[in-house]
Design brief:
797 residues, 27 helices, mainly alpha, single chain, two-stranded antiparallel sheet
């Protein structure tokens, strides 16, 4: 397109719009219809037609229909496209006025007065309805909102004839339209003062009264000084909790005068202060006065000799909201009643007088429904005193054993509710659990005395014979004794382990007078078959209570190294545990499993360990191990723990198919491994697989450990006939290994040979073959070719 051409959003060719293109520039002035000119265009009108304030002019002064109207187009938000409101009707005059809707109002300014103020005029064409300006009745109403406020204060774009509430209008929780409550709406503000009935005004409302009516301390005033019936009463409304709604206590009866007083109940008391005397104290008066039948503090509560709690205390000390006339709440400092009994269950006298409460029921009745919690009434180390000092229960003995902290009497005593029935009892392991937080000597030290009554056995103090070591005070009994069995013992701290849980006098034969004398070793090991290190230690000796140290495993010279966690019993055995019986032992393949796999750790030359009478003695590296692996390598390179005199082959040793021992072949071993047995002996048990050691005729000769090379098949002169990997024993006899001579070829051997080689025997230099032999070879095998006709005397092939 030439510079300054109007945009073509549809990217059409020139001839689509310019329908009479010729040789002259003037021919481009003939244009297609409006519909064709908009082919592929559905929006962004302003890029060609301009905005409402200025027209656009394009190449050759071509100007499409512009949006500059008279009167002006209504204002719209910057960036809004014509297609947002106008339908695309691309014929002359087809892009006319549009009927505004709530959706189309999204593209115009949010201030309604921009278009709808009185006296405004815009190009509207045939739009229906026509532009709505501020009504004359609004201007003359005297209401600032109607006179100059924005229309949105009362109207919205969804429905122009409905209204939003003006500022400070009272709430309308039922979201009713204006005409539901304002039944005579006219052109004046005064017409809104005519209201529907009380019942209609509360359409859809069941609670939250105070948002319109206020609370009992202040009334609410709304738009145009409208004030509904308020909650300010004479005399005042009873106090209620902040946030409480009228409907919590009052029934919704929306007629004039229908919202009257309410009968209070336990449920309704949940909405008033918990301090009863806020409403019920002497002299209190609330709406509607005498008709309320309010219960205040009775004169009998105020007059002497009634307690101070009745004269000035809160009602809740004795009364509750469920049954006001039958008090079940206890007065201050009354003793607990865990069974939640009424007063008359325990107080059996004349309850119309204070003195009548001093007459009590029998002990079993007083404990009705009670099985535990004795201390809350009877106390512990100190007695308890309750209300009026006339019903203090029996207190615990002053010299009771110490057990009160967090313990109830019922933990040890049975419930026997008669006079004197709650007496002494015998202590057991279970009842000791209730004093487990205290040291035994708290009760059992020598010279202590507690109330025990007829308990049997009596209190056990520290015996007179406890005069040694741990038995002497101030050491606690629990170091040696338990509550399960007083005559049995637990071991003192630092005592060596006792895996078999043997009683003290099994090992300490003079106990309890002396714990120094010990039983025989076999007795000391009663029930023990392993885990020796637990008591005897390993590389370091163990010392136990009173510096007692059993025989340690620390030896001179030292014990052979063993794997961490290995128990002595893995290698050593003893049936008597007598002195000296746990001595040396002979190592076996199984016992070697408990020592390091690196043999030289123990078997290197010069090593020394405690072996005693072990047979054989410790084997070090022999003096004749002077070369190779024998000198520096680990024993495991040649030896095993299964048979020390047998050996595994060193690295690179020639194969040993018959698995012979070293000295079968090496006749001077272990002093000398170079002296070998005869060929026949060297081949003991071998009848095949010659190539394994001797190699193939056409391969490099093999070299084994220490550069030892047996007779090789590749070292013949002249060379061996081609045979590839043909096993030697297919042609040669492998029974006498003193000389491995040639063989007489046969048809069968030729078959073996050629089956493996796949080639022919070549003719050696100077070789002559008789014609007859050639003919026979050709006829029989067809394998030999290229042999000259002038053959001279015989050569075998």
């Amino acid at each position: 397109m030439p510079s300054g051409h109007m945009p073509t959003p549809g990217t059409k060719t020139c001839s689509v719009c310019h329908t009479a293109i010729g040789a002259t520039e003037a021919s481009y002035a003939t244009l297609a219809s409006v519909a064709v000119l908009h082919t592929g265009v559905s929006g962004n009108c302003g890029q060609c037609h301009g905005a409402t304030v200025a027209a656009l002019t394009w190449y050759n002064n071509y100007t499409p229909k512009d949006a500059v109207l008279a009167p002006a187009h209504i204002p719209y938000i910057s960036g809004s496209d014509c297609s947002s409101c106008h339908a695309a009707n691309y014929v002359t005059g087809g892009f006319g006025p549009t009927t505004m809707s709530a959706a189309k109002h999204a593209f115009v300014p949010t201030a309604c007065a921009s278009c709808h103020e009185a006296g405004k005029t815009f190009y509207m064409g045939a739009s229906t309805p026509a532009l709505q300006g501020r009504p004359a009745s609004h201007i003359s109403s005297g209401n600032p909102q109607e006179v100059s406020g924005d229309c949105s204060g009362c109207h919205n774009t969804t429905d122009w004839t409905t209204t939003a509430k003006p500022p400070n209008h009272m709430p309308t929780p039922g979201t009713q339209t204006c005409s539901v409550c304002h039944t005579a709406i006219g052109s004046t503000a005064a017409s809104y003062a005519t209201l529907a009935s009380v019942a209609v005004l509360h359409t859809g409302i069941t609670g939250n009264c105070s948002q319109c009516h206020g609370n009992y301390t202040a009334a609410l005033t709304w738009y145009n000084n409208y004030t509904p019936k308020d909650a300010i009463l004479t005399p005042a409304h009873i106090p209620y909790l902040t946030g409480t709604d009228c409907s919590s206590c009052h029934t919704s009866k929306f007629v004039a005068g229908g919202f009257s007083g309410t009968t209070m109940s336990a449920a309704k008391h949940a909405f008033v202060p918990t301090t009863c005397d806020t409403c019920h104290d002497t002299g209190k008066n609330f709406y509607p006065g005498a008709g309320l039948n309010l219960q205040t503090r009775p004169p009998t509560h105020v007059s002497a000799p009634n307690p101070a709690s009745q004269a000035a205390g809160d009602c809740s000390l004795c009364h509750n909201t469920t049954v006001w006339t039958t008090p079940t709440t206890l007065p201050n400092n009354h003793m607990p009643i865990p069974g939640t009994q009424t007063c008359s269950v325990c107080h059996v006298g004349n309850l119309s007088t204070t003195a009548g409460y001093a007459t009590m029921a029998t002990i079993p009745v007083l404990h009705t429904g009670i099985t535990t919690g004795c201390a809350q009434c009877h106390g512990g180390a100190a007695p308890l005193t309750f209300y009026n000092n006339n019903d203090n229960p029996k207190a615990a003995p002053a010299n009771h054993i110490p057990s009160f902290t967090n313990n109830d009497c019922s933990a040890c005593h049975k419930a026997n509710y008669v006079a004197g029935g709650f007496g002494p009892m015998n202590m057991t392991q279970a009842t000791h659990a209730n004093v487990s937080t205290m040291a035994c000597k708290t009760c059992h030290e020598a010279g202590l005395s507690f109330y025990m009554g007829a308990a049997s056995p009596g209190l056990q103090g520290r015996p007179a014979d406890h005069t040694l070591g741990q038995m002497v005070a101030p050491n606690d009994c629990a170091i040696c004794h338990t509550t399960a069995n007083w005559n049995s013992t637990t071991m003192p701290a630092g005592h060596m382990p006792n895996p078999a849980n043997t009683a003290c006098n099994t090992c300490h034969i003079n106990a309890p007078n002396s714990f120094v004398g010990l039983a025989a070793n076999s007795v000391l090991h009663t029930g023990i078959a392993g885990n020796c290190g637990l008591c005897h230690g390993g590389t370091a000796a163990l010392t136990w209570y009173n510096n007692f140290t059993p025989k340690a495993a620390v030896l001179t010279p030292s014990h052979i190294p063993y794997l961490s966690g290995t128990d002595c019993a893995s290698c050593h055995t003893s049936s008597t545990y007598a002195v000296g019986t746990f001595g040396p032992m002979n190592m076996t393949q199984a016992k070697h499993a408990f020592v390091t796999t690196n043999c030289v750790t123990c078997h290197e030359k010069g090593k020394s360990f405690y072996m005693g009478a072990a047979n054989p003695a410790l084997q070090g590296r022999p003096a004749d191990h002077t070369s190779g692996t024998m000198l520096t390598g680990d024993c495991g390179g040649c030896h095993t723990t299964a048979n020390w005199n047998s050996g595994s082959l060193p690295a690179g040793h020639m194969p040993n198919p018959a698995n012979q021992a070293c000295n079968v072949c090496h006749t001077a071993a272990p002093a000398n491994y170079t002296t070998l047995a005869s060929n026949a002996v060297l081949h003991t048990g071998i009848s095949s697989s010659c190539i394994t050691c001797h190699g193939a005729p056409n391969a490099t000769k093999p070299v084994f450990a220490n550069n030892f090379t047996p007779k090789a098949a590749s070292g013949l002169a002249p060379v061996h006939i081609p045979s590839a990997a043909t096993p030697c024993e297919n042609c040669h006899t492998a029974t006498v290994f003193t000389a491995f001579s040639g063989t007489t070829m046969s048809s069968a051997k030729h078959t073996q040979l050629l089956a493996h080689t796949g080639v022919t025997c070549g003719r050696p230099s100077g070789m002559r073959v008789p014609r007859l032999a050639k003919a026979r070879l050709l006829n029989r095998s067809r394998y030999f070719t290229g042999i000259a006709e002038d053959m001279s005397p015989s050569w075998g092939c």
